[in-house]
Structure formats: C-alpha cells, structure tokens
Amino acid sequence: MSARPSWPISSSARTPASSAATSPTSRRAFAGHEDDFELITILRNPLSRTLSRFYFKNDQHRHFPIEGAIADWLETNDARAAATVFTRMFVGDVELMRRLANGTSNAEMGDAALQAIENLKRFTIVGTLEQIGAFEQGIRRRYGIRARIGHARSNPAYPRFGEQPSAVQDRLRELCREDMTIYEAFAEPSSRLAQ
Asked: Of the ranges 22-31, 35-44, 125-134, which one carries the lowest mean pLDDT score?
C-alpha cells in the first residue's frame, strides 16, 4: 500500500493538495489553476509496497487478503497493478492511465514512467516513506508548521525483499521497474538501499 498524505494544509495564499486527490497530475483537472495549489506526496519503495500488498492482513476483514503463494500472485493482474501505482497515478493522462491499467507495451510503460517523473517535478515536495523525517522537515521549511507523519505498520512480520527467494526478487524487480525508476528519481541514496 502506498503511503499518501490525506490532510489539508493551509499556508498564506496557497493551499497544498495531496496526491490522494483524484489524478493529481491531470493536466485537464488543473489547467489554469497550477498556481492555486501546491502538490505534495510521499512515495514508498515499490518493492516494499508490492510485498506489503501481498502480505497485508486485516483482522477486521476490511481488506481481502491474498491467498496462495507469492510466486503465483506475481503473475496476476493484481500484482501488476500493485507494482505500477506511481506510473499510473502520476502519468497525468487519463486515457494513458486507463491503457496502463489494462496492460500495455513495455515502451509505453517506460514513457509513462518518464512522464510521471516530469509531472512529479512540478510538485512542491516529494518525499519518501523511508526518509519521512526529511519530508517532515521540508513541510516545516516550506509552510512553517511541524508535521509528524506516522506510518502504521499493521502488517505482521513477513519476509522482506532481501529475504525472498531469488526468483521472487527478480519478478518483483521486473514488475516494479517503472515505479522504481520514479522512486529513485526522488529518493535519498540511503533509502534506495533499504529495500
């Protein structure tokens, strides 16, 4: 699951909007209003995020746990969707976003990831969950407020990326290729190593 801020922050005449908003990089949605909003978001390492999606369990059954072996799940459309959240969310083109969700060529996926990076560069603050302190400091510097952003780790202990069998690691890298490209464009070097 990707960590996304969902709080409104007000500062002077500008209002930051979070990536939880519908299609935060949609050119049509923000056309003519680019100066009215400051967009911020938190990115989570896609390898960790995708593994978390597989292993996530909720005692209150609000989430449908995935049954079966991870190697089998990694061949499903659900796994492909979990691995390409950033590419689809930040591409900025609703029609392309739909094509990406239904499967598309590797070339189109790669182009979409590059477009997502360009769109994210227009955000005021892009942080990573693995470097949450730097994200909080960015908010403090920009808006003059102290933000404490928690990360509820509701998953039980499960094998992290480095503990997975090599075939699973290889498949995860393949599925998450575009989202990792996006993540690495904004991650601090130390958070890239914490996979």
From this structure: 22-31
Provide the residue ranges of all domains of the chain, joining segments of one domain with +. 15-193
Give the Cα separation of 49 and 46 in Å (integer).
5
Largest CA distance in the chain: 51
Q: 18, 24, 54: which is closest to 116 by C-alpha?
A: 24
Dihedral over alpha carbons 163, 168, 174, 179 (to 10 degrees) = -50
Which is nearest to 19 in space by CA: 30, 5, 35? Answer: 5
Q: Quote the crossing angle between the two packed helices 177-186 and 106-120, to the nearest 10°.
A: 20
Tokens 């990089």: give the residue.
Answer: 25
52 sits in which H/E element? helix 46-55
pTM: 0.78
